[in-house]
Amino acid sequence: MVSTGGHEDRLFAALANGTRREVLRLLREGGPQPVQALAAHFDMRRPSLSEHLRVLREAGLVSGERTGRQRIYRLEAFRLAEVREWLGPYERLWPERTCRSTCERTSDSPE
To answer: Which residues form the HTH arsR-type domain (predicted)?
Structure first.
């Protein structure tokens, strides 16, 4: 059985959830935001969103800073470089696969 690093597992697990990816998109497009502003985009209670934010924090994808009574969340995009690095060896296979799929569809279609 192969075991990967705990941090890498947390990173990919955090990205596996659509709500968490949407939080990352909101922070990318809107910059640092308080949890209240982020919560306005979701049909869920704040404790549920806070759990998603906790997972993102533990994966190093966001950071939270207390400002008065609010916690402001910020995207830590540099962590996504680890994902790119992990995917890098597979990237050379994508054009071949894409071409093969496209070529197969083209050859199957009537002329």
So the answer is: 1-95
